[in-house]
């Protein structure tokens, strides 16, 4: 019996991969996913390796890799160039850590502003709104 994941239409392929058809077409336009040949008078068919490739792309996106970075990772997908893959991951980790530092500063400023709003007394201006209206804005 033929493997059910070896003769998929684009709709069935998208469903098996957990994405929509436009995502498949978008990945093809970005050269992340090959477009199979279309037999004369027929329709393109996709297989299990195509499903695995889309799942690889989605997993990499969940880790924050851009489509350009994913393209680089796909060139290394045979798994034999771990040092190159590691360098890409190290750069991504640096980006994530930098973003995390910014988010932590944002959290501290917002916490301070929320606390100021909760502790204000009387008919004074809202500290959050006042700080956002200042010329310099809120320093993070």
TrEMBL record:
CDD domains: HTH_MerR1. It holds the Pfam family MerR_1. Transmembrane segments: none annotated. Keywords: Activator, DNA-binding, Mercuric resistance, Mercury, Metal-binding, Repressor, Transcription, Transcription regulation. GO terms for molecular function: DNA binding; DNA-binding transcription factor activity; mercury ion binding. Residues 7-76 form the HTH merR-type domain. One of its GO terms (biological process) is response to mercury ion. Mediates the mercuric-dependent induction of mercury resistance operon. In the absence of mercury MerR represses transcription by binding tightly to the mer operator region; when mercury is present the dimeric complex binds a single ion and becomes a potent transcriptional activator, while remaining bound to the mer site. NCBIfam families: MerR. This is Mercuric resistance operon regulatory protein. It comes from mine drainage metagenome. The gene is merR_1.
């Amino acid at each position: 019996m033929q493997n059910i994941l070896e003769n998929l239409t684009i709709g069935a392929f998208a469903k098996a991969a957990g994405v929509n058809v436009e995502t498949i077409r978008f990945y093809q336009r970005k050269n992340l996913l090959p477009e199979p040949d279309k037999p004369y008078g027929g329709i393109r068919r996709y297989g299990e390796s195509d499903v695995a490739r889309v799942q690889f792309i989605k997993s990499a996106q969940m880790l924050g890799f851009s489509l350009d970075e994913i393209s680089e990772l796909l060139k290394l997908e045979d798994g034999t160039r771990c040092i190159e893959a590691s360098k890409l991951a190290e750069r991504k980790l640096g980006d994530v850590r930098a973003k995390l530092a910014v988010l932590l500063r944002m959290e501290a400023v917002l916490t301070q502003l929320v606390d100021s709003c909760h502790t204000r007394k009387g008919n004074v201006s809202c500290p959050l709104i006042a700080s956002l209206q200042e010329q310099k804005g809120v320093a993070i």
